[in-house]
Amino acid sequence: MTTSTTASHSGAAAPAPPTLRAESEAVYAAGAAGVLGAAYGLVVSLVLPDLPLANATGAFGLLAAIGAGLVAAAASGTGYWRSRNRPGQEWRRALPAWKFTVNTISVVIVHTALAFLVTYAGFRLLGLGFIGLPVVTFWAILLMAVTLGLASYLVYLSVSRVTTQRMSSLLMAFIVIGTLTAMVTSPDPGWWKVHFSQLGTFDDLCSVVFNGTLIAGGLLVTTFAVYIANDLHQLAAERVLTNAAAPRIVSTLFVIMGVMLAGVGIFPVDVNLWLHNLSASGMALMFLALLIAGPRLLRGMPRTYFVSGWAFLFATLASVVLFVVGYFSLTAFEIIIFALIFGWIAVFIRFLGVSGQRE
Description:
Keywords: Membrane, Transmembrane, Transmembrane helix. The chain is mainly α. It is built from 11 helices and 2 strands.
C-alpha cells in the first residue's frame, strides 16, 4: 500500500478540531434531514396511525430507525468525500480510486448501521417507559424530524474528521452495539447455551443485525488497515520504526483479518459450518501473527506496548487451555477471544498514536 507521508504523525494521531465549514455543513445537513423527517413522520402517521413507540416487531421505532439509517447514508457519503481535502487528510487523495471507493463504502455502511441500531435501541428503550402509548400525528412529525436531523448532524461531523484513533473507536462502538442489539432481540433466550454464532442462525432481525454487524465490521477493518498503513509509513519515514516492511505487512494482516471477520457473518453456522469456522480461525490466526511478530515487526514502538502484547498473548493461550479442559463453555470462549482481539486493536492504536513522542 502506498500512501503519502506529507501529514505529520502528530496530526494523524489526534482528531483534528472541527472546522467552521464542517460545523456549518453539518447544521445544514441536519436542517435538510429534519425537514425530510417531518414529511416522513406525517406520511407514517397518515398511513399507519397511532403506532406504539416500540414493540416486538419494531412499530414506530423501526420506521424511525430506517429513516435515520437513510439520512446517515447520505450524510456520511457526502461528508467523507468532502473531508478528503481537510488538513491531515490529503493523503487520501493519493489512494487508488478502487481503494478510496471501498473505504467510502465501508464508512457509509458502518455509519448507516450505527444510526439504525442506536435509533432502534433508543426507541425500544423508550417504548418500555411508555408501554401502549400511541404516536399521534404531531408527535410522529416531531419525533421523526428530531431523530433524522440529529442522526444527520452527528454522522456528518463524525465522518468529517476521521483519523486512525477515531476509526478504532467507531469500530469498537459498532461491534459492541450491533452484538448487544442482536443479543437482546434474539427470539431464543437460551441462545448462549449453544454458542455465540447461534445469534446468526435465526431468520429474523436478530440474525440480520448479528451477521450484518460482522460483515460491515470486517469491511471497516479493511478500511482501518489503510489508515494504519498511513500512520506506519509516517513512523517509518521519521525512523521511529526500524522495519521498513512493517506498513505493508501489518496492513495486509489487518486486511486479511477484516475479510475473515466478514466471512464469519457471510457464512453463518447453519449455512456453511466449514467456511464459518475457517473464517473465525483465520481471524484468530491473524491476531496471533500480529502479536507474535510484533517485537520484530514493530521494533521502535514503546516498550510498554510489547509488554501489553505479551499480556494479550498469554490471556489468549490461557483462554484456549481453559476451554480445552472444559472450564469455559464455547460461548464464553468465543466472547473472550472476540474481546481480546478488539481490546488489543484499541491498545495498538493508542500506542501507534504516541509512538515517537518525547516526554
